[in-house]
Amino acid sequence: MSEYIRNLSIIAHIDHGKSTLADRLMEHTGAVTEREMREQLLDTMDLERERGITIKAQSVRLSHEYQGHDYQINLIDTPGHVDFSYEVSRSLAACDGAVLLVDAAQGAQAQTLANAYLAIEAGLEIVPVINKIDLPSADPAAASAEIAAILGGDPEDVLAVSAKTGQGISELLDRIIERIPKPSGDLDAPLRALVFDSYFDTYRGVVCSIRVVDGRIRKGEQVLFMATGDKHAANELAVSTPRILPVDQLNAGEVGLLITGVKHIDQIRVGDTVTLVSRPASEPLEGYDEPKPMVFSGLFPSDGDDFERLREALEKLQLNDASLIWEPETSRALGFGFRVGFLGLLHMEIVRERLEREYNLDLVSTAPSVAYRVTLTDDSVIEIRSPQDLPHLTSVAQLEEPYVRAMILSPSEYIGTIMDLVQSRRGAMHHMQYLTPDRVELIYELPLAEVVFDFFDHLKSRTRGYASLDYEPTGYRVSDLVKVDILLAGLPVDAFSTITHRAKAVQYGKGMVETLRELIPRQMFDVPIQAAIGGNIISRETVKARRKDVLAKCYGGDISRKRKLLEKQKEGKKRMKMVGAVEVPQEAFVAALRVDTSDR
Amino acid sequence: MVASPPPSIRPDSPELADQAGEWRSAYVHIPFCARICPYCDFAVVEGRQDLVDRYVSALVSEISMSVDWDTLDAVFIGGGTPSQVAPMLIGEILESLNDKFGLVDGVEVSMEANPEDITARSSRGYRAAGVNRLSMGVQSFDDVVLTALGRQHTGGQALRAIEDARSVFERLSIDLMYGDPTETEASWDRTLDSALAAGADHISAYSLTVELGTPLSRAVAAGAPAPDDDVQADRWERAAERLSERLIRYEVSNYATDAPCKYNLATWAQGEYVAFGLGAHGHRNGIRTRNLRRLDRYIETVEAGQRPIAGETVGSGWDRELERLMLGLRRTAGVVAGAAGQKLLEDHPEFVDAGIIEQREGRIVVVKPLLTDTVIREVLAVPPQE
User: Fold this and answer.
1) Rounded Cα gap, residues A192 and A281, in angstroms
2) Is A370 within 8 Å of A451 (Cβ atoms)?
3) Strand, helix or coil for residue A66
4) pLDDT of A552-576, one tens digit each?
5) What domains appear along chain B, each with residue ranges and CATH number?
6) Is the dihedral of CA A199, A204, A208, A212 positive or negative?
7) Which residues on chain B are in Cβ contact (under 8 Å) with A581?
8) Count of H helices and E strands in chain A?
9) Please, are residues B71 and B97 in contact by the beta-carbon 8 Å criterion?
């Protein structure tokens, strides 16, 4: 049976045509008719469609006839953004092979390479494919040579397709069956199924994506989740084609959906092993690490009354995003809210947008921070996720910040400008290698805090969009860090505090003060804006008091209109936050993001 | 009917400010202009002099269709440019008001005029027609500024027109406008000097304001220099200082030697008035009405025997209480605090702390008039009190 099953992912960079390829494969195998065909069928969330990225892994079962046999091909989608690489390894654990898809015009990107290495490390068979060969700018020979160099194979081996026109799709399906090994696993052994994803469905409750490794699972059986120890009934089994089709059983090698009636996603741990209560396996499968949030930001409702609604919305979002963590946070400036951990800036943006859009919340978010490690003078060690949690410096013995190993792939002509950028971000080069005569791989060590904010934007603009980036955490290092406080009208505003390297503190403080001066409207009184390290003021600007705020005329003909105008202006002011006596617009709280500390 | 105040009362006195709410007035709108000024957002038409006769007939009909009311203490003929209408026709309008409502002894009849229309002869004509207070749209005595403002007269013409009008009208007001980007501090000073020297008993000094939908607003959107708030604040302060040498400021933008403009003072006291003409706004029995704003429709509606009302606003008791403060706070005399005012003082001590408002004998007075709207915005948000 499992001889005719193939489980695979497509590894590709954003825009390299993964979703189009998935669509074409589904169309070619008759999984969907052309009439049903929607562009990028697997990307279901609105945001994914809008941004053209995949956030949650989805899977779909296809069937393809090869040499007289019907093969079951399970296509497991993977996210393509650096923030979501943990989801990639999750998906890869359910596969036996991967299609490595590279744009024939752009060549391999760091992200793709990082994921390809993940796949190789996981023992997956790689099927290299170049896409978009229909484009006039495509250079199939160069792209094939590059992939071959990276993977150590023969350029002849690289399959050329056009997901757009359908050219090469049939060959690709054959190649998948020829190259990717059948699932290993023992149908007669006790059930072991890997939970590689889960999502919340309003009608079904929590739906688990599982890959059956050993044995079989039948509808109605009592199952045991080995890590949590919870027992549930397998109320429903199904496969996605991509329509959800109920099935009675799933056998070793198959991929499908398990619905147990669990209502809260907290109760299911992705990476867990499902076995049977009646005949449990002795050892669970190798799971994977919980995703670790790397960026933290305060989220506060603009209207304090919405605090509970925000909590409920976060809980609901977490149903489909186990990587989302939070804890309550109180800010003098912003009131009650949550400190939320994210995988990266894109993840943060997406969560924020979903909260505002899907839950109709109006939020203020504070400048993102990484987690710092603080050794106190009594030798105890604490982790802080918000600058305001930094203890007084007299009780701090040592400060450490997280570092990452960053891989940058770029045309070699941009090496100089990349080096400048990385140096201005306190980076140190680790390694440089030419992949082809005009493509280079650069490996750097640099602080995470320097990467997460706008590093990628700068990298893109300096290399005209050609460079790509991937990074992984490498642990903590001692660093000369200081806390920069921002004072409005003499009072420190907790939500504006930042931890930064001493060498950049003045530049940051100045930038922040200047940005705030532009953003804070004139008030009834002068508003001094100061940046301070400890008690030392390092920068100061003043928003001068508003001098004129009166309509020149208000006569008999104007009264109703003028009143409406003033009432509308008052409505606009409601979006301001009162910090002490100062009205601060919400965008000021993310002003830190606009402060450029690169060398200009 | 309440008797007019003796001239010994200052224009900024609280007694006068409050008493003005009892006065009955009429507003008559004349939309015709030789050229529309780029900053103007009133109901105006350019180059339709052919319609003046029909329009005045419509006005007279509209007046006769109006519900009966008390005798009028004040009439204000505004525009547009009323001086584009011949004295005889203005006389007909005033006559129909007299027929309909009656005018008190010593009624104040104000009319707006542009300097280019005013001669000794036309002044005598309007005076004979019943106008006893002329309000001249001078704006500036600086030709550079006048050109920038799109005005049709020169500073010299304005001086001659004032000279001519002053020999006829016992009461003369001058409108000035400051803060155009072409205006310098020196230019504004000269304009103030000339206005003071002209011997007017009333001066209104307005900041140039960019109103939505005007040619000025389109020009600014396209990159033309916009008036600067700080410069305008300087100009206002300069005007307040200089004009106080001879006049008394009784509202944000208005100065008088002794007698204020009764019609306007009544407006700020939330007084009632009937209104006639294109786009005119009335206020009777707590209801604010507005007339049609398109000239052809206005004329046709009235000629068809119907009142040209486009809509009306009926506010709740609390809405009217807030409106009372909104209007009253513009006056130097301030306004009786009342329920809303007390609540404002409780909820916003920062206005007193910052020296923007003061409490005086049960009244709230804005002592930094340039920040009046900062206060009024909060007034309009005061929740209803028991």
Assistant:
1) 7
2) no
3) strand
4) 999 888 898 899 999 999 988 877 8
5) 14-268 (3.20.20.70), 317-380 (no CATH)
6) negative
7) 350
8) 13, 33
9) no
CA A492 to chain CA centroid, nearest Å: 32
Chain centroid to Cα B63, Å, comes to: 21
Stated pTM of the model:
0.71
Q: Do A553 and B253 touch (CB under 8 A)?
A: yes
Separation CA A533–CA B283 (nearest Å):
61
Q: Which chain B residues are within 8 Å of A556, Cβ to Cβ?
A: 27, 263, 267, 273, 275, 281, 283
Show Cβ contacts of residue A243 under 8 Å, excluding neighbours closer than 6 positions: none
Query: What is the interface pTM, i.e. ipTM, of the complex?
Result: 0.93
| pLDDT at residue A289, rounded to an integer | 62
Distance CA B161, CA A377 (A): 86
The helix/strand/coil state of A492 is strand
Measure CB to CB from residue A556 to each of B232, B233, B275 and give the nearest one: B275
d(CA A190, CA A215): 5
Phi, then psi, of A441 in degrees rounded to 5: -110, 125
Contacts A–B by Cβ distance under 8 A? 95
Residue type, A216: R
Pairing of strands A273-276, A255-259: unpaired
Nearest CA to B164 out of B113, B203, B236 is that of B113
Q: Do B267 and A559 touch (CB under 8 A)?
A: yes
Counting as low any pLDDT under 70, the low residues of chain B are 1-8
Interatomic CA distance for residues A593 and A581, integer angstroms: 25
**The amino acid at A79:** P
Which tokens sit at A231? 């027992």
Helix (H) or strand (E) holding B29: strand B24-30
Longest dimension (CA), chain A: 91
3-state secondary structure of B233: helix
What local confidence, expressed as pLDDT, does residue B334 receive? 97
